[in-house]
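Write out the 3D structure for:
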Amino acid sequence: MGLRETKKARQRAEILESSLMLFRERGYEATRVRDVANRTAISEATFFNYFPTKEAVLGRWVDEQFAAAATASPGGGTGAGTRQRAHQIVRALATGLAADPELTRLAWTRARWAPAASLPGESRWSELLFAAGQARDEVRGDLSPGRLGSLLEGVLHVAVGDWLRSGANAPSLESQLRQAADVFLDGCRKRHERVASARPR
């Protein structure tokens, strides 16, 4: 990453941090873009160069939770199989989101989230996961790793939303994320493989 990209990444991180601090201190609705700009010592125009809306800030935070979970998990997508690696990431993601439940709820109810595009020369964690799976001949090859990764992130995002809407007796976030990932990964098997359906005993 060049100097210009490094400075832009630092500025984006500062805006994100200031926004989240203000959301916690004042509440999401009471926080204006002007407040974030003043806290970060930038103009409102500069804010909008990085984030088109306040909701986009929350979407970025969600995206970073996925990326942080992949970084925090051992294995790096090379040593473990696709399913084992996905379970590692799910466990770290559940831990990270549970550490800030109020912000998690805010992000999942307010953000218009979609998997962010990777930066030039970089790949998303989910794309790397499926690229490694295809290289090991574990994953169907008729879809690109990037497409499979985006779909998995979407499935996990929906699972978090389901968990937030569940009652107090609902299964843990980790178990719901793991179930969602497993169902999706079963569909990612090579076409000639069959998944045995679960039969009640």
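DSSP finds nine helices and no strands in the chain.
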